[in-house]
Amino acid sequence: MTLVRVENLAKSFRVAERCPGMWGAVRGLVARGYRTIQALDDVSFELSAGELVGYIGPNGAGKSTTVKVLAGILVPDSGRCEVLGRVPWRERRANARDVGVVFGQRTQLWWDLPVAESFDLLREIYAVAPADHRRARGELVEMLDLGGLLNVPVRQLSLGQRMRCDLAAALLHQPPILYLDEPTIGLDAPSKLAVRSFVRTLTRERGVTVILTTHDMDDIEALCQRVILIAHGRVLSNGSLKDLRTQVSRERRLVIDLADPMAEITDPRATITAREGARVTVSFDPDRVAAPELIAQFCARVAIRDLTIESVPIEEIVAQLYRENGAP
Amino acid sequence: MARLVRLYMHYAGISIRSQMQYRASFAMAATGHLVVTGFDFAALAVLFRRFGSLVEWSLHEVAVLYGITHVAFALAEAFARGFDVFPAMVRDGSFDRLLLRPLSTAFQVAASEIQLMRIGRLTQGLAVLGWALATGGFSLGLAHWLLVPLAILGGACLFSGLFVLSGVLSFWTIETLEVVNTVTYGGVEATQYPLSIYRPWFRHLFTFVVPLACVNFLPGAALMGMPERAGAPEWCLWLAPFAGVLFLLASLQVWRVGVRHYTSTGS
Asked: Which chain A residue has the Cα nearest residue B93?
């Protein structure tokens, strides 16, 4: 079942440009120059129930703009968008009941209030029945280990603690759809892992549909079955992580630790891409030569202490895609 | 509706409790407010002692108008000041958070800030109004007594409407526009006195554009049993306070236009 449908979405912003210096400031009062930024050019995708989709792209690619349109905060210039059959910006309030939104850079909680009071207020805002609220809250407190944080004012929480509380706050009204905008930004390793394992449980056990925007490819590798990559407001790739890889490069790498650092190692079907002391990195195309065959070749000719086989890191893949599409 | 009232009380409770965390600061702000506005009226009384009357108006008569204006303004300040601090929400992007919630934005902005310290001006205004009505020798029937809260309500709505309008401008410009403030505070100053002492264009501005006269001078004249000084049919004077309510409703429509502009520009 399709929960979210986005078709040919376009959105541009007009940004006021001010000339530098005193003269510029004066001129800005009279006539202001504007520059148009095409945040979304032609974005289309669909989300089915229970999917966890990664939404990636370089800074300024239009990720947050898409999330804002889906949340009903922003009206696009053209194109269609439906969330659970509703147009988000036309039925903003009804849409709000069915989605949860977490902005990593900005808390949705009340800064001066203890966490528990924010939760109480959210119950009333979303008109959740007391019994439902108690159950949902109890589950979230347990899953996110919030027991010790409930009476702490939000401003006193660490970033990781705050993010866990924000996740709970976005889910108290039990929305079937969750938008996570950079939920792991700035978090330490244990907090990142906690957020990831929570999101995984959420989709696997609760069937919540999630859009995750992030710059952290570990988030993507750990969580997402599907990745949508955008740059300059256009979708460049939409498919599994494996598809994304093969789209850019099928290259695999063999990292070999030689017993004798001076030993020569060559094969016409592979190229040496790095050599540091006894460690040699060799790349090859698995379509031309199978890994076992290549390894057997090398083992027959030189003494090898250790050997690992790698794919191109997803970071490199993505960086290359960004580069090819002229991103900064 | 009942749900919104409950929710408003919840928001109000939070705002009041956070103000009560700084008890001393609250007490000083409220007392300071009382003293400053108290001096304000004392200065007025001194002028009257010196000059006897203002055109045809006695101190008691002016005090009725003064009291209505200040009580109404204090109520608006207490309940609609959220719109005044609202431009900061647009600038730092926290307005987006309000749009994520299944509630009207105007409700959330109004509920986000309830300024208890305005009790200072409120107390002073009520004291002046009470004193003037009790000792001014007016003959007040039941209808007159009902007109007092009606005028105050109309005035509170009107000043709230002005706060909404000043907030709405921040959807278009991040520079704070002093125009609305001039009307708001200028209006408070001007309507402390009978409008009949001013020039016609000024009277018309505050009757038909920003209908401050409708919530103050006009019902005030009816209240004090001197409709002839208002220069309008008496039934108009009794209905005039509703202009304040209409002004607020119109301001909220402008607010909606502003929100629509915001969501389509994202700035």
From this structure: A106
